[in-house]
Amino acid sequence: MTDSGYRLHERLQADTLDLGQSALCDIRLMNDQSWPWIILVPRRMAVREIYDLTVADQQQLLRESSCLGQGMMALFEGDKLNVAALGNMVPQLHLHHIVRFEGDPAWPAPVWGRQQPVPYTDSGLQAIIQRLGPLLDRVKGC
């Protein structure tokens, strides 16, 4: 179920690529191949904070986030998973999931503002979508 007035924020639309939908969220790939980086956006109108969601939606978001994060860490064999809902630039509630590696270009600092994004090439995008396929199927079923 979605709120009838839900619309993806234009900044998220511009900076991310569509990977499908789970029960609650749009699943978006950050268009930056520097890190494995997926964003969950609850399809709810005018929601800025997790506590603005119903209790049922909060629980569903936690299920989807946990499923996604665990799967990303297993798939990419990262050293740390960063999960964040900042909202300073985009007020619409969205939850970043970024796999980090010791020695990556921003380690150990946050990834924001460390370097210019490196957009996916067509072949790179196809490869990451194929690699993520089974994980995305699992998240969509959470």
UniProtKB/TrEMBL annotation:
Signal peptide coordinates: none
Name assigned to this protein: HIT family protein
Gene3D superfamilies listed in its UniProt record: HIT-like
Domain of life of the source: Bacteria
TM region(s), chain numbering: none
Pfam family, one: HIT
GO molecular-function terms, A-Z: catalytic activity
Species annotation: Marinobacter profundi
Residue ranges of every copy of the HIT domain listed in the record: 38-107
Coiled-coil region: none
